[in-house]
Amino acid sequence: MPNVIDRSGKILREEPTPAVFAQEHNDKQHAIFRAVFREMANPRAGTASTLRRDEVSGGGRKPWRQKGTGRARQGSIRSPQWRHGGVVFGPKPRSYVTDLNKKERRAAFIAALSDRFRSGGITLLDAENFDIGKTADFAALLYGSAKGAKKGPKTLVVYGVDESVGEVLRRVARNLARVAVTPAGALDVKDVLRYERIVFTTGAYDWIVAAFTKSPEGAA
Asked: Domain 3-44+99-213 class?
């Protein structure tokens, strides 16, 4: 069960693990792989481009006659083995977009987040009166001290979609190399797996639980 802490790091209470995240999902490893593959592939621009031998300028004349020179026969100075020649099987503009249906994306996210719940990697932050203005104070909240933030677990802080505290969290976490901040709506499977610990504000936690407690057709 995740602990709820205040701005000083004091544990206020324990929250029960939601039923949707309390189950084991060992059979969803392939779904997690497919979800992460999609999340990493889709942003790729796919604009890398090289010139084939028929696209390189020049080379219209045979460099020397076929026989009698003692050299290997050559048909064009733009063949791949020549300097400035064409590229063999080089990249061309393409789309890396991979599709994954909504039901499988939902199952992968639930499986990944469930693993974080079971390993104790989820903490809740009561950000109702969050007034930390210094990075050192925020590091002390997450790691016990500013020095501990240099070697502590990689932490992702997630704030609610409609919470104004998001800008404050981004500012105080800006200089902490092992801390990242993201809105709940942008959280994906890749983020859940990348960070050892996830700190949800209570608003973000309620939003996530509500979104994934719905039926698969209504979930985000």
From this structure: alpha beta
